[in-house]
Amino acid sequence: MELTTDALNTLMPLGTTLGLELVSADPQTVVGTVRWHERLTTAGGALHGGTLMALADSVGGAVAFLNLPEGAGTSTISSSTVFIRGAREGVVTATGRLVHRGRTTIVVETELVDDAGRTVSRTTQTQAVLVSRP
């Protein structure tokens, strides 16, 4: 399946709220962006940590989705984010990379960078592979 911005935001409507745009997607790497907007910030004017985590989780979830066996679903079961700097303008780009694809879990590392190429945060997440049981 080809994953587009519209397809991703249909599968995961929060992407529409974030303004998530998909740049590229294949089973190894997914790249997406969110543009700074006041409605997505905290009191100091930086993108809210929840916005950044949602971007990372969304891109990581897309990597997992592209690695699922036929008919399976996925859900985040653990996520660890390290925040390095704030993003107070422009576009934040998230690059999610497949680390491990197993029978029951998929692990993804996602780096978020600002327009200057500086790391904003890094997230490692584990996605469950949800297989329907007969």
Q: What do you see in this structure?
A:
The protein is α+β, with helices and mostly antiparallel strands. The chain has a single domain, classed as Hotdog Thioesterase (Thiol Ester Dehydrase, Chain A, Roll). The chain has three helices and six strands. It has a six-stranded antiparallel β-sheet, with helices on one face. The two termini are 24 Å apart.
Highlighted features:
globular, 6-stranded antiparallel sheet, alpha+beta, single chain, Thiol Ester Dehydrase, Chain A, 3 helices, about 20% helix, about 130 residues, about 40% strand
Précis, in short:
The protein has 134 residues and is of the alpha+beta class.
Mean pLDDT: 95
Total of domains = 1
Helical fraction: 10-25%
CATH architecture annotation: Roll
Shape: globular
Lay out the secondary structure.
Blueprint: H1 5-11, H2 14-18, E1 21-25, E2 29-35, H3 49-65, E3 73-83, E4 91-101, E5 105-113, E6 119-130
Antiparallel strand pairs: 1-2, 2-4, 3-6, 4-5, 5-6
